[in-house]
Amino acid sequence: MHKLLNLGALLLLCNCPSAFSSEVLITEDFLESVAKQGSPNLDQIEAAFQSALITRGEENEKFAAELFGKGSYAETNERALIEFAPVFSPVKQMQMGIRKNMVSGFDTSATVTTDQRTASSPFIGKLKNATTTTLAFTVQMDLWKNLFGRMSKAKIESVQLEVEKAKIEKEIQEKTFHISLRRLYWSLVANELSLKTSEELLKTAKQQANETAARFRNSVAEADEVARYNAQVASREGTVTFLKYQRELYLTQLKNLLPELSASDLKLGAYDIEKTIYEVLSCTVQVSGQEKTPYDYTKYDELVSMLSKLRNHSQIVNDRYADIDVKLYGTVRSTGVSLKDTEPGKTPAFYRGTYGGTFDDMSNTNRTGYEVGVQFNMPLGDVKKNTQKSKELYDDKRLLSAINATTAKVENTHREFVKTIKLLNEVIASQKVSSRELEKRLKGMQKKYEQARVSVNEMVLDQDALLQSELTTIDTQLQILNTIFDYLVVFPDTPCGFNRI
Fold first, then answer.
1. pLDDT-derived band of residue 462, with 50, 70 and 90 as boundaries?
2. In whole angstroms, how far apart are CA 41 and each of 35, 144, 180, 182, 455?
3. Using CA atoms, how far apart are residues 123 and 140, in angstroms rounded to an integer?
4. DSSP string covering 165-212, please?
5. What's the distance, CA 169 to chain centroid?
6. Dist. CA 384–CA 128, nearest whole Å
7. What is the pLDDT of residue 442?
8. Residue 382 DSSP symbol
9. Mind listing the pLDDT tens digit for each residue in 233-288?
10. pTM score, whole prediction
């Protein structure tokens, strides 16, 4: 509901005829405002970033302290297999502890375990709540594979780098998304300009066809002239129809990017071509004046740095993948027992224990013991070594290719932009000269045609040449815009007015 309210507010701001009208006038600012309300593409970008955060969180969880415990109560009416052996019932057991794995390669835990049970036997008398409590502190140290936390630290730093990398990629992808909206918007503007030009010339072609048909009826024009003008009308109608088809494709792409506009009838709002041309010119001049690659305006150099660090950390982790895993562990424990004869000399004897009695036993008497040991895991055969080689090759090739591709993209984008934008500007200059000269020629051809000095075919060819020249000029101008957009995807912080930052 809140998205619908936001969209309604945006429609009011876009100078639409009515906030409740299905017709929406789109501008660059309006599209940006709608995009801020949400888009499937932006949601996917955010989801990818959250995935990196989840991976980091899962890795950090391995080194977070945790409280653990378990408890049980068991009761039975079974009969002892041997008469003098007691059957314990009920039996109450509980364990509680804290453990923490250290990044430095040490694992620690502290536990308290209690066991309280009741039994009776003709030989031992009656036991009520015989209680045993054990306090234990255990330390485990990695002696080889993860000595001093070499692998653990590399993994922690790797997932942190992945998050920083994902953050940069998120910024790049968001910028790319917003530029894709601008591409579509200016494609629609170019389409509209081409459509207006084509419709104007279609109107002229129809007028000429009607005039020729009238002259034919008066036996002044030939049938082939009528046919030629009718063919020109059909050709220009085809051009207009194709441009309308192209416009619908652009609108469909736009609605796919911004589903909130799906039910709306989209129309272009006001745009300032002269202002845009000035901004584009200023931006191209500024960028072309940069002799060296402007790394201050891009995030890709930071991305390369992250990839290089990830490559180093992956080498550390993979290098120890198939190594023997040796760990030294030691446990210090103290065990107290509580079981006291409550009625000395009486038969059968009656013994009772308490939880407090077990701690008194530990504190009043030295009940401390310890255990030291070594455990190891050693892979046999070459299976794990072969996997290690594949992991090393995969990570190295994957990250190295990403580093080289990203570096080349940054360098080539700037270098080629300077070259291509100059060529495109030269093309436009030539096309403007061509259109101007074709207009002059067309005026002369019109006079000659009226004087019957040139054929209708020559006249139509010149008209089509002028139309094609004007349409090509618009397409080339759009190509310049797309070239700048390609540049701004890689250098999103370029400080020029057209960049809208």
1. low
2. 10, 46, 11, 15, 56
3. 44
4. HHHHHHHHHHHHHHHHHHHHHHHHHHHHHHHHHHHHHHHHHHHHHHHH
5. 7
6. 55
7. 60
8. S
9. 898 899 899 999 999 999 999 999 999 888 888 898 888 888 888 888 888 888 88
10. 0.78
**In contact, 193 and 467? CB cutoff 8 Å:** no
Check residue 93 and give its pLDDT: 96
Collect all residues with Cβ–Cβ distance below 8 Å to 435 and sequence separation of at least 6. Answer: 466, 469, 470, 473
Please give the pLDDT value at position 342. Answer: 80
Per-residue tokens: 190: 């170019």
Determine the Cα–Cα distance for residues 233 and 439; give it in Å rounded to an integer: 19
Residue-wise pLDDT for 472-499, tens only, equals 788 888 888 888 899 899 999 888 888 8
Q: What is the pLDDT of residue 405?
A: 93
Query: How far apart are the C-alpha atoms of 485 and 499, rounded to whole Å?
Result: 9
Q: Which residue, among 142, 134, 89, has the nearest Cα to 115 in the 3D structure?
A: 134
Torsion of CA 286, 287, 292, 294, to 10 degrees: 100
Q: 94-115, pLDDT tens digit by residue?
A: 999 999 999 998 999 999 999 9
DSSP 96-165: EEEEEE-TTSEEEEEEEEEEEEEEEETTTEEEEEEEEEEEEEEEEEE-STTGGGHHHHHHHHHHHHHHHH
Do 406 and 300 contact (CB within 8 A), yes or no?
A: yes
Q: What percent of the chain has pLDDT over 70?
A: 88
Q: Tell me the C-alpha distance between 318 and 387, whole Å.
A: 10
Rounded to whole angstroms, what are the CA distances from 385 to 142, 148, 282, 316, 494? 21, 23, 59, 15, 48
Question: Which fold, 26-56+154-313+392-499?
Answer: Outer membrane efflux proteins (OEP) (1.20.1600)
- Paired tokens of 441: 């020629």
Whether 345 has a pLDDT exceeding 80, the answer reads no
The two tokens of residue 82 are 């041997």
Pairing relationship of beta strands 125-142 and 325-338 according to DSSP bridges: antiparallel
Domain ranges of the chain: 26-56+154-313+392-499, 66-101+106-145+325-377
What distance in Å separates the CA atoms of residue 356 and residue 359, rounded to the nearest whole number? 5
Cα–Cα nearest to 240, from 252, 251, 232, 228? 232
Tokens 């061509």 correspond to what residue? 434
